[in-house]
Amino acid sequence: MTKKILSLLIVLWLTLGALGCVALQTVTPTALPPVTAEPVTPIPPATVGSAQPTSTPGAPIVVAHPDDPIAALESQVEAVYAAVGDAVVNISVTSLGYDFFMNAIPQEGTGSGFSYDNAGHIVTNYHVVENANDIQVTFADGVTIPATVVGSDPANDLAVIKVDPDKHALSPVSLGDSGTLRVGQFVVAIGNPFGLEQTVTFGVISSLGRVISSPEGGRFIGEAIQTDAAINPGNSGGPLLDLGGRVIGVNAQIVSPSRANAGIGFAIPVNTVRRVVPELIANGHYAHPWMGVELFDLSRWAKALQQAGEEVPDEGLLILSVVPGSPADEVGLRGGQRRITVGNARDFPAGGDVITALNGEKLSNWSDLNIYLELHTRVGDTIQVTVLREGEELTLPLTLIEQPQ
Q1: Is the pTM of this model over 0.70?
Q2: What is the pLDDT of residues 90-145, one digit of tens each?
Q3: Do the Cβ atoms of 331 and 398 come closer than 8 Å?
Q4: Which of 1, 165, 178, 197 has the smallest set of CB atoms within 10 Å of its CB?
Q5: What's 359's DSSP letter?
């Protein structure tokens, strides 16, 4: 028995030795040839007073061809900033808020703006300077001077502030024409996002004719420009420019769940700036055209009225009431003629005229009317108002007056 065990151990030892030889042969490295070092010439130290650099910059990895359109585009963006950068300012505002115990608490905010003329006027958004107690304007060279509000228009989210031109010279911008813009057109935004002065971003016009909400409740801003150029908090009031360096819009809003750039930004069209800003400078406010009616949007609530037994169209604007002495009152537009119950609403004024068009332009909802009056009419204009009255269509001439303050 002992001899069998001994024989088994001898066989096992010989087998492991053979395997060990294989493993050793497998992992034994092949010798590498020796590396001959190239001689290195040391860089001589710079002589005191010498203008030679201590290091040499690396060569560019990619060299654009002189006729490369990308290089030309890059040069154009650089030229826009060089031409307009000095006109863009940083606006810092201080306002008063109140805590739970009604104690006054200073609140600070920042935005952007741009020089409008040599008289010290600067254009920005209304929401940038809303309720501001103190306004400080910082120019591209770092100089900061105080400013005051000259005029504001919450409905169009525009404001004009003024600095003393004797304390700092202004570089007025050139205004373009937002009526000639094209989707896909390259644009440049300059502003102060998160307080970072003189920030330039680049993109395209993503869409035109957008409708955005106004800081003045219940109103809308039409013909807004949508862009994917990065716009963040602090860009508000800064210019959106074409590659010719002309202002085509005033950056105003973004759509983002994080309140930072998500590629969807909106600018107020420059043609609105052309229309509103001169009146803000001259009068301190903009005269909005007014009809003198209280309206109900049927595009949202027609079904509820139809279920209550009212014969109303699916779209249009039901007149609930007419302001005595207003243009609507003078031409005989009618408000509610009787009171009904609609759902949980009692004493709902029903039976009034339904406005369906202005000057032949169909109106589906309240924003359609608001935008048409803002963009296509002025105080003193006479418009043709088409209404449905007891199933019949009527067209009445109405002369617009200024909306009461």
Answers
A1: yes
A2: 999 999 877 777 777 888 999 999 999 999 999 999 999 999 999 999 999 999 99
A3: yes
A4: 1
A5: T
Active-site residue, 299 included? no
Q: Which helix (H) or strand (E) holds 275?
A: helix 270-283
Identified catalytic residue from 112, 121, 127, 242 = 127
Q: Active site includes 207?
A: no
Of 401, 404, 358, which is closest to residue 380 (Cα–Cα)? Answer: 401
Complete domains list, the chain, with CATH: 84-162 (2.40.10.10), 174-283 (2.40.10.10), 289-402 (2.30.42.10)
- Angstrom distances, CA of residue 236 to CA of 106, 112, 193, 281: 21, 6, 8, 20
How far is the C-alpha of 83 from the C-alpha of 4, rounded, in Å?
101
Mean per-residue pLDDT, 266-281: 97
pLDDT digits (tens, 9 = 90+) for 293-329: 999 999 998 999 999 889 999 999 999 999 999 999 9
Residue of 112, 153, 157, 214 with catalytic role: 157
| Separation CA 348–CA 100 (nearest Å) | 37
Residue where the block lists tokens 């010719």:
244
